[in-house]
Design brief:
The protein is an alpha/beta fold. The chain is about 35% helix and about 20% strand. It is built from 9 helices and 8 strands. Helix 6 runs parallel beside helix 7. The protein is globular and about 45 Å long. Bound molecules: D-xylitol-5-phosphate and zinc ion. The site of D-xylitol-5-phosphate (DX5) has 21 residues, from strand 2, strand 8 and helix 8.
Amino acid sequence: MKIKIAPSILSADFSCLDKEIKKVEDAGADMLHIDIMDGHFVPNITIGPVVVKHIRKVTKLPLDVHLMIENPQDFIDSFVSAGSNMITVHIETISKEKIKLLKEKLKSRGVKLGVSLNPDTPLAKIKGVLDLVDLVLVMSVSPGFSGQSFIKKCVPKIKELRSIFSGDIAVDGGINLESAKLTIKAGANILAAGSYIFGSKDVKSAVERIRNAG
Ligand code: DX5
Ligand code: ZN
């Protein structure tokens, strides 16, 4: 599978977000990872649909929206209208029945659906929804902040997931050269990376380095 890179704008300079986005777009990023946090599901607050709507105007990259919020189903319409191309919800925040409803809604709007799970959440929790989703986002840090260290126990989780799921497997948190290698080898094909990319002097080579790390 082709390895796709999803720079997480949580590590970007928000005072010049358009330039930061242009930078990763020029560097060959495949999509833009946008972290939405509500201060309830995670101990941090970021942005909402209003900002996503404006991001939509400055880039052609697919918008990969990672919802770290409670009651995600209540906000789906706003994020779809804002121009999201993929929306990922956390299994810790939503029932299988509601995921089914989301799937129908997103399918009719041409938006992909992802499910994410925290480092401490076992794979068994998402097994019942794998046939409903296009993507699984495996968290390799506790969600809430960029710049944390990669949690290695997600590697066997990715490996097991790849043996039962043929869709996209994304990994999110603490991605650098070393963890990119481990996760690509385990079967991940999308790397969401914040500080490694935006913290690099040469963004283009950072993108290339992790893409080719496996
Ligand atoms: C963490 C976010 C991640 C984060 C990644 O809650 O979901 O997307 O921004 O940042 P790094 O790559 O710095 O760990
Ligand atoms: Zn994320």
